[in-house]
Amino acid sequence: MQLINPGIGLVFWMTVAFLMVLFILGKFAWPAILKGLKEREQSIQEALDAAKEAQEQMKRLKMDNEKMLKEAMEERDEILAEARKMKDKIISEAKEKAEKEAAGIVENAKEKINNEKTAALREIKSTVAEYSIEIAEKILREELKDKARQKAYIEKLLEETHLN
């Protein structure tokens, strides 16, 4: 029963011991503990501030990255548009050049055909003229074999000449 009903002396000495421990702790331990807690609180606050600053910096970097990505995409689109324009221009220039060359080739072919046609016609005319002369020569030789026929033919030609 002594534990349930402690004596006054025991309570007194326990109170004195408690106050001494409280005084020693208050004098030496609590300032160090409070200082450690304050430092811990301060370091936690600094870490939170640094994290918040890092988070804001990450947001800025993310926005900068998005902006750079958008600019890069716009630049890519401009480059692609320019490339398409250049492709179309090159194709149209090549078509124009091909059309000009084709027209030149056709013109040259027409000119060659005309030249060959003219040459062929000249050759035909020349050949016809030669054959005509040969035929006329043979006919005249045959006609003018005897002297009486020659005289009659000459007179006929003279009469035609006077009439014209």
Rg for CA atoms: 65 Å
Alpha carbon gap, first and last residue = 185 Å
Number of strands: 0
Q: Rough shape?
A: rod-shaped
Q: Based on the structure, what is the oligomeric state of the protein chains?
A: single chain
Measured by DSSP, the beta-strand proportion falls in: under 5%
Task: Give the helix proportion (percent range).
Answer: over 70%
Order of helices and strands: HH
Average residue-wise pLDDT: 88
Tally of separate domains: 1
Outline the low-pLDDT stretches. Answer: none
Secondary structure tally, helices? 2
Report the sheet with the most strands, covering strand number, pairing sense and barrel closure. none
Secondary-structure-based class equals: mainly alpha
Question: Any overview of this molecule?
Answer:
There is one protein chain. The chain is mainly alpha-helical. The chain has one domain (8-163). The protein has helices at 8-143, 147-163. The longest helix is centred in the middle third of the chain and has 136 residues, at 8-143. The termini are far apart. The mean pLDDT is 88.
Summed up, what is this model?
The protein has 164 residues and is mainly alpha-helical.
Q: What topology does this entry show?
A:
Blueprint lengths: L7 H136 L3 H17 L1
Structural descriptors:
164 residues; 2 helices; rod-shaped
